[in-house]
Amino acid sequence: MGEDRLKKEIESLSPAERRELFSWLKEIVLEEQSGEKRMTIVFDGGSRGNPGVGYGSYAIILPGESPILTRLDFEGVLTNNQAEYKTLIEALKGAERLLKERGEDPKLWTLDVRGDSKLVINQVLGSWAARNERLAALRDEAKHLMTRFGRVTLTHHPRDESVKVLGH
């Protein structure tokens, strides 16, 4: 993104959005200075029809690098919530694969996972029960994958944050 375009994008943000952006950038700079190994994942999934054709996308964001964006199409008929979980699972697998390809041990990394699905975030955190067996199995798979990293935080964010990062 060119400097002029970036400047216009920042100028178009509301004061609250600018504060949030500044806070996020400050966090990245402090992490780089501390030497902490930290990665952010932003994920979003859905289905056309609910249930219907499932899709998703995720971004892996490493400090000082451009986001790595991945788009997914799932086979079979899925609900929106199933597609959200499947996208999170693929994002976790992708993050682990990326670190291993770079010769890094995922256990030495902190993962900051962000998504706009309150259901997925709260079920994985344990704040909400997963009453549906299929969702419970997907939740368990996601939780298992998270154990492969040193530390994982999960944050729910508004839909427009996913759109900013993922483009949809």
Order of helices and strands: HHEEEHEHHEH
What value does the average pLDDT take?
91
Identify the CATH homologous superfamily of the largest domain: Ribonuclease H-like superfamily/Ribonuclease H
Q: Architecture of the largest domain, according to CATH?
A: 2-Layer Sandwich
Kindly report the CATH topology of the largest domain. Answer: Nucleotidyltransferase, domain 5
Helices, by number, come to 6
Cα-atom Rg, whole angstroms? Answer: 16 Å
Distance linking N and C termini:
18 Å
Rough outline: globular
Strand % is: 25-35%
**Arrangement of strands in the largest sheet:** 3-2-1-4-5
| SS-derived structural category | alpha/beta
The biggest beta sheet, please? 5 strands, mixed
Q: What is the CATH level 1 assignment of the largest domain?
A: Alpha Beta
**Total domains, how many?**
2
Helix content: 40-55%
What's a concise summary of this model?
By secondary structure, the chain is an alpha/beta fold. The chain has helices spanning 3-11, 15-34, 80-101, 118-125, 133-146, 159-166, and strands at 38-48, 52-61, 68-78, 110-115, 151-156.
Note down, in words, how this protein is organized.
The chain is an alpha/beta fold and 168 residues long. The protein has 2 domains: 1-34; 37-166, Nucleotidyltransferase, domain 5 (2-Layer Sandwich), CATH 3.30.420.10. Helix content is 48%, strand content 26%. It has helices at 3-11, 15-34, 80-101, 118-125, 133-146, 159-166, and strands at 38-48, 52-61, 68-78, 110-115, 151-156. It has a 5-stranded mixed sheet with strand order 3-2-1-4-5, sandwiched between helices. Helix 3 (80-101) runs parallel beside helix 5. It is globular, with a radius of gyration of 16 Å. It starts with a helix and ends with a helix. The mean pLDDT is 91.
